[in-house]
Automatic annotation (TrEMBL):
This is Neutral/alkaline non-lysosomal ceramidase N-terminal domain-containing protein. It comes from Pirellula staleyi (strain ATCC 27377 / DSM 6068 / ICPB 4128). Residues 41-268 form the Neutral/alkaline non-lysosomal ceramidase N-terminal domain. The lineage of its organism: Bacteria, Pseudomonadati, Planctomycetota, Planctomycetia, Pirellulales. Pfam families: Ceramidase_alk.
Length: 473
């Protein structure tokens, strides 16, 4: 007869110990699973910001009346990223010529209050389309003497609504947070032309003979956001070129908007977000027709699709963000007598600037000799370093930063957080011209930038990107 081993009965203490060990093993298994599955959480939103009533359009001083129609909708789009440790950041792209620092500060305070996102974690990026509405106080001297009181009230109402819609876009993106992955790749589009070194009318001939002159940045950096099911949720693409193909009286996001439309049709359910690079001295040339705007949009969309078809680098779910303003010097400040002479003159833009600057002197305050310039940096894993610069930044900055830090994958965004003026390199500053200082009157600043403008910005970029030591060696 076979014998069967019989285990002795367990005591209450032994049962408790075994249960505790089982619980510990279970927790270890769960933690191991979580660590193995560390991932991004991604939220996406898209809110229409097209004016509902006719407003004056931004970007060109030559316009003489409000908008009369619509070619495309204008949008505020948001991608909300949350890394494996719960740190969050929100990119908001806007189909606008720009926003000013007071507006940006108010919006970011509202976002921080409602959603606990610190200032460094919110990047407000404008496409610089010249077929959007006058909004905030950007380029105020360009419109101050042509807008009636009623038209100005419309602009103010639109600006308040715009701020609310930006906060709404962040809220909707947070509500849609879900696990996903981020991937990086890039391609090239060549329609950006340096407008300082190529006469617009001659560009077709120069292109045919491959004789285009001057620096450009033709890269198209692309970040793809995928859901856990592999579906495309968002496509983030950048390009360094003015959105100035069109100059009519119809609302339009210009070539960036047409590119995003094509990409969203190709990827149903996804949102395509465009950010403008350092293209202050770059134009889409030739231009001035809807057909050309659509063509450039198609070229940009094609380059983006080419990037997506390449082998892409996975971006690890780690996020850090920094934001700081630095004082950039202003020089050649006008005297009271010079401002009074400008006020009596015939140039309405100089009159408008003189009026606002004289108001400062009437308050007993000196004219500002510095400007608080914003520099922002996001680090996405060890794979991507994203620098956001304020103002209309010339291409020299992107080329220099990339040259100084060749080991990094760098995204350099202009027109971000505050569009207060053109930002020339020292070379462009010394050459002069519109980007070198002539445009300052339209932005209302009292003088031109000091000669150290480039070095101050580059020094802050080095500091935020962790390249200060390497760059000084």
């Amino acid at each position: 007869m076979a014998r069967h081993a019989v285990s002795p009965p367990r005591t209450a203490g032994q049962s408790t110990l075994i249960a505790a060990l089982a619980a510990i093993l279970c927790l270890l298994a769960i933690n191991s699973t979580f660590s193995a599955e560390k991932t991004w959480k991604i939220g996406v939103s898209k809110v229409v910001i097209t004016p509902e009533v006719p407003l004056w359009m931004a970007g060109y001083a030559s316009r003489t009346k409000p908008a009369e129609g619509k070619l495309t909708e204008l949008f505020a789009k948001c991608v909300l990223l949350e890394d494996a440790d719960g740190r969050r950041a929100a990119l908001v792209t806007l189909d606008l010529v720009g926003i000013d620092r007071e507006f940006a500060a108010d919006v970011c305070r509202a976002i921080e209050k409602q959603h606990q996102l610190p200032r460094a974690a919110v990047m407000l990026s404008t496409s610089h389309t010249h077929s959007g509405p006058v909004a905030t106080k950007v380029l105020r001297p360009m419109y101050e003497l042509v807008l009636s009181e009623e038209e100005q009230r419309k602009v103010d109402r639109y600006t308040r609504s715009l701020g609310e819609k930006i906060v709404q876009s962040v809220e909707e993106a947070i509500a849609s947070l879900a696990p996903g992955t981020l991937l990086y790749s890039e391609a090239v589009a060549t329609f950006a032309v340096n407008r300082r070194t190529n006469v617009e009318a001659e560009v077709p001939r120069l292109q045919a003979s491959k004789s285009i002159q001057g620096p450009s940045d033709h890269r198209v950096p692309v970040i793809l956001a995928r859901g856990s099911d592999g579906a495309t949720r968002a496509i983030l693409l950048g390009y360094a070129c003015h959105a100035t193909t069109l100059s009519g009286y119809e609302w339009c996001a210009d070539y960036p908007g047409f590119a995003c439309e094509l990409l969203e049709k190709e990827h149903p359910g996804a949102v395509a977000l465009f950010w403008a690079g350092c293209g202050a001295d770059q134009n889409p040339l030739p231009r001035r027709t809807v057909e050309l705007a659509r063509s450039y949009g198609a070229q940009l969309a094609s380059a983006t699709s080419e990037a997506l078809a390449k082998q892409q680098r996975v971006i690890q779910p780690q996020l850090s963000a920094s934001y700081r303003t630095i004082d950039l010097g202003l020089t050649d400040l006008p005297t009271r007598e010079m401002l009074e002479a400008a006020l009596r003159g015939t140039n309405k833009y100089e009159q408008a600037r003189a009026k606002s600057l004289l108001a400062i002197l009437e308050r007993g305050e000196p004219l500002p000799s510095t400007y608080p310039y914003p520099v922002q940096t996001w680090k996405l894993g060890n794979e991507v370093t994203w620098v956001a610069l304020g103002g209309e930044v010339v291409v020299d900055y992107a080329l220099r930063i990339a040259k100084e830090q060749p080991e990094k994958t760098l995204l350099i965004t202009g027109y971000a957080n505050d569009v207060m003026a053109y930002i020339p390199s020292l070379r462009v500053l010394k050459e002069g011209g519109y980007e070198g200082g002539g445009a300052m009157v339209y932005y209302g600043l009292p003088g031109r930038w000091a000669d150290d403008v480039e070095e101050k910005i580059i020094a802050e970029v080095r500091l935020q990107t962790g390249a200060a030591v390497a760059a000084s060696q």
